[in-house]
Amino acid sequence: MRFVVGIYRLLIAFFCLGGTYEAWLLGIGNKWVYFTFQTNIALGLVMLWAGAATLLKGIQPPAWLKGCLTLYIVITGLVAILVLGLNSTDYQLVLGIRTTWMIHVISPILASVDFLLFDPHRRFHWHNVLTWLIYFPFYVAFVLIRAAIWPHSGPEAGGNPYPYAFLDLGHLGWAQLTVNMAEYLVVFFALSLVIFLIDRILPAKTPLTIDR
User: Signal peptide position in this chain (predicted)?
Assistant: First the structure.
C-alpha cells in the first residue's frame, strides 16, 4: 500500500506540474499571475515531497501545509467550474490531456481523495481555519500592485493585467472589488471550516493511512 500511495502522490504532482508547464518551463511570466497556476505549482511541489517521503519512509509535509493546499486546490476547482467555466479553447495538451482539465478538475479531485483516504486525521488546530486564509489577501495585493506597476502586462486580452473579472479593479472600482473580496473570504472561510470539521470527524487513522 505504501508503494501505491507514494506513486499516487507523485501522479498528483505530475498533473499539477504538467498542467502548469507554461509557467515554469516556457518562461511565460504572466501565467504566474493566475491563482490556479500558483496553487497547482505549490501543490505539485508538496506532493513531490509527500510522494518521495512515502516511498522512502521519510518526513511528510506538515499537516497545516497539506490542509492549506487542499483548501486552495478545492477552491481552484470550484471557482473554475461554478464561476469561470471550463469552455476555454485556449489550452495545451500534455499526453493528450487538456492542461486546463489537469489543473482545474483532475488535481483537485485527486488531492481531495489523498486528504480523505491517505492522510492521518485530527491533526489540525482551530487556528488553522483562519491562518489558511492569509494567502488570499496576499494574492489579491500581489495582483493589484502588479497591475498598478505594469498596467498593460497581461495575461488577459489586450494586455489587461487582471487575471479574473472579479478582480478587475479598472472595471469594478474599489467599492465592488471590496464587496467581491469580502464575499470570497466568507466562502473560503466556510470551506476552510468544512475541511477542518471533516478532518475532526474522520478517524485519526484508517487502513489506508500513510503517516511516514
Answer: none
Q: How confident is the model at residue 107, as a pLDDT? A: 96
Domain containing 33 equals 2-201
Strands 97-98 and 93-94: antiparallel
The predicted pLDDT at position 181 comes to 95
Q: What is the distance between the alpha carbons of residues 186 and 67, in angstroms, rounded to a whole number?
A: 18
Number of helices (H), then strands (E), belonging to the chain: the values are 9, 2
Is there a domain that residue 170 lies in? Answer: yes
Distance CA 80, CA 173 (A): 23
Give the span between the Cα atoms of 127 and 121, in whole angstroms.
Answer: 16
3-state secondary structure of 172: helix
Is 206 part of a structural domain of the chain?
no
210 within a domain of the structure (yes/no): no
Question: What span, in angstroms and rounded, lies between the C-alpha atoms of 85 and 78?
Answer: 10
Total structural domains in the chain?
A: 1
pLDDT at 158: 81
Q: Is residue 207 part of a domain?
A: no
Taking 70 as the pLDDT cut, the residues of the chain under it are 26-29, 86-91, 93, 207-208, 210-212
Element (H, E) at 191: helix 169-201
